[in-house]
Design a protein that fits this description.
- The protein has one domain: Ribonuclease Z/Hydroxyacylglutathione hydrolase-like (Metallo-beta-lactamase, Chain A, 4-Layer Sandwich), CATH 3.60.15.10.
- It has helices spanning 34-47, 67-74, 85-89, 91-97, 170-181, 200-206, 208-215, and strands at 2-8, 13-20, 23-27, 50-55, 117-120, 123-129, 138-142, 147-151, 154-155, 158-159, 189-192, 198-199.
- 28% of the residues lie in helices and 26% in strands.
- The chain is an alpha+beta fold.
- The protein is built from 7 helices and 12 strands.
Length: 216
Amino acid sequence: MQVESFTFNPFMTNCYLCYDQGEAVLVDASCDTEAECAQVKGVIDEYGLDVQHLLLTHAHVDHIFGCRFFEAQFGQRFQAHEAATPFIERAEEQATAFGVEVDPPSVPTTFLAEGDTVSFGGVTLEVLHTPGHSPDSISFVDRASRQALTGDVLFQNSIGRTQGLPETSRTQLMDAITETLLPLGDDFTVYPGHGPPTTIGQERTQNPFVQEARQG
């Protein structure tokens, strides 16, 4: 699986275009402006990719700015965990709380749960439910290429925020990291919702939050 990353909007949120054998998935359309949306669409067109699925790791407002644009482009809705529904329904309320505006995406009609799979090209992504930062947080794992897209769960030397946001749980988040993500293996590359890529091995040994949880 090839991964093309983009960083958009005032929150510096990552958007990922994952592709293989001419087919692709778009994960977290964080692009906030016409120019940002056009940048992603330009790469899709340049590579001649057939976008099979639109995916969300979770539906916090900084991850959904560009969803409506790509829904129109590809004639499909974003797929997300069922717990994303109330966040999407309250997207404008979320945006107002952060002093921004958003054109909300459609409510998903295809929900993803633990153990589901999403396929494109020769790739099969496994869905892992990794709540804590948000109840709808899911990670997409390609075991064949040893890569994972974790949303706002695990960052380089940090973890997803669990203060000042609705329906967060530090306990759930640390359980998701230590019981679901760390067992993937140290050689797994992690593509987070914010910041640069990292590896499970690096976070196991260098992430202070992970170190604290493991020692506790």
